Fold this sequence. Notes:
The protein contains 11 helices and 7 strands. It is of the alpha/beta class.
Amino acid sequence: MRLVIIDLGAIHIHSLRELKSLAIQIELTNSIVVRKLGTRVIAVAPMKTMGLDYIEASSLRSGYRLLVAPMERVIDMLGAKRVIVMDPYGEHDLRVEDLEWAEAVVLGGIVDRTPIKGITTLLRNMGLPWAPTMRITLRGSILGVPSEINNIAAILIKALEVGSLENAIKEIQPKRDAIARASAEIPRLLRSLGRSPSIEDLVEIYKSLRTWLNLDSIGMMRALIRCGRRDLASMWREKIIAGEIISEKPEQAVLSFTKN
């Protein structure tokens, strides 16, 4: 992977606040990618349009390249033959082997507080209809995978370094995404117990989730609240956060009861 390309084909749908956030995310992406020797960030807009001045100023400030031309022409000019488009609703699950194969990875330059499902696919169909679309999944779901452009780029770079998408996601994953995924997993894990959960059961669930999510004890409590188990969240707060200690290494997690 020698090129990370940001598709700005939908830049015109962004509000002023979103444009500023988009510029920051591209700058962060550039700061992450330039650490990998031989990889460049290029932002591509199909035409001059409202809001592009924010990206122009950002590119001058941060040093990434901005090209105003149709995406397919840019890809041809850059000489990239093996291209994949990242899309949370893509056709295939991304593998490390795909990143090793690809010369260029295209990310949708979209920052929207109310995301429009399918917009990345639409941009791909308009600009690179021949390129495969791929999604980053975490144990079969996109839930828990961060959506910010800079975090996606960081996951791609880290996955190439460590040879594992799951490990890369865990390292880059913001706490809020870990909590969101944990809150979806916890009800299933509780049902599998077949009994009212004890604090020891919650610790085991926590230890299990921590092996693949960037989850801490506070995040576990928030996940319990989020999935509607305030009763268990209260137990967790009283027994774990307030009075007991869990090792920060999940494989060595030890529940130490506070002696009254």
